[in-house]
Amino acid sequence: MSGSLTSHRPGLAILLKLSAIFLFTVMAALVKAVSDDVPPGEAVFFRSFFAIPVILVWLILRRELRYGLITRYPRMHILRGLIGTTAMGMTFAGLGLLPLPEVTAIGYAAPIFTVILAAVMLGERIRMIRITAVLLGIVGVLIMIWPRLGDGAGLEDAATTGALLILGATMFRALVQIHIRKMVQTEHTAAITFYFSATASVLSLLTIPFGWVMPSVHIATLMILSGLIGGVAQILVTSSYRFGPASMLAPYDYASMLFSIIIGYFWFSEVPTVVMLIGAALVILGNVLVIWREHQLGLERSKARSVSDPKG
Predict the structure, then answer these.
(1) How far is CA 6 from CA 58, 83, 239, in A?
(2) Residues with Cβ < 8 Å from 36, sequence gap 6 or more?
(3) What is the pTM of this model?
(4) Which of 10, 18, 99, 253 has a CB 3.0–4.6 Å from the CB of 270, allowing a cystine?
(5) What does the pLDDT look like over 41-58, one tens digit per residue?
(6) Residues 6 or more apart whose Cβ sits within 8 Å of residue 213
(7) Beta carbons within 10 angstroms of residue 269's beta carbon
């Protein structure tokens, strides 16, 4: 019964997805707001640790707690935690060095890198449409980061370092997606969600020797909020896929650009450059091609199943 309901509630699915994207953007803004006072590793801890209670309550309400605590392959979660925590730490470090819209735009390259890694690591075939998408994405990324690398900019330049950190984080996020493709074959989604927050909390403690600080009440409140809001956003984005297919919801990820521009302008007085917007547009176009191609492949697989496995 629930399965039939989920396929006929696209409005709710879109609302949940947009709400999640907005909250993720707010979370990033909170981390950026404390970046001058709190090291990235400490921010990762607060973001991860304070998401755990939210996730646990959600699992209890859904009666899925046992799925969230049982795992067949703990090492897969540890590896996912290592990769994901690295990506999060690099992102948080980059947020303190770059405008929020620029961080968001460079992050759009993750699906493009995922296509490349899927071909290299999983042996997936890449045809002309995906090749075109990858090329568009790479050109878009180069356009966005070139001002940070050209005109004599060096690694000692904060913006250059920030661009490289976000680019590296984006590559690690793509690697996470490849790893999750393997994990979902044996692990429940609840377990993947819970154990990432748990492992990220533990791994972030390893950065204590690199200079954690005792935050003020104001700063601590902002960091705790980043964790709570991040946990709620994770739940909303997971729930959105219960009411609509991924192919339908994927384009709404790009609402984060609008949210980041608005929040960046009013909170941090940041204005996106024309060059950044052009590069972001090319990356988004490449991602749209990937989404369209995945939709087409899904239709082809459905047709193949209907022919090979007739129901009548």
Answers:
(1) 18, 32, 10
(2) 96
(3) 0.87
(4) 99
(5) 999 999 999 999 999 999
(6) 37, 38, 39, 42
(7) 8
Burial class (CB in 10 A: 0-12, 13-18, 19+), 12: middle
**pLDDT one-digit tens code per residue, 222-263:** 999 999 999 999 999 888 888 877 767 888 889 999 999 999
- Residue closest to 179 by CA, chosen among 165, 162, 195: 195
- Are 144 and 280 within 8 A, CB to CB? yes
Assign residue 232 a region (left: φ > 0; alpha: ψ between -120 and 50; beta: otherwise): alpha
The amino acid present at 275, given as its one-letter code, is V
Give me the count of residues in the chain: 312
Contact 58, 235 (CB under 8 A): yes
C-alpha separations of 219 from 51, 54, 195 in Å:
17, 20, 26
Q: Domain locations in the chain?
A: 2-308
Which contacts of 200-204 are long-range, i.e. CB under 8 A and separated by 24 or more positions? 200/44, 200/45, 200/47, 200/48, 200/81, 200/84, 200/85, 200/88, 201/45, 201/48, 201/49, 201/52, 202/81, 203/81, 203/82, 203/85, 204/41, 204/42, 204/44, 204/45, 204/48, 204/85, 204/89
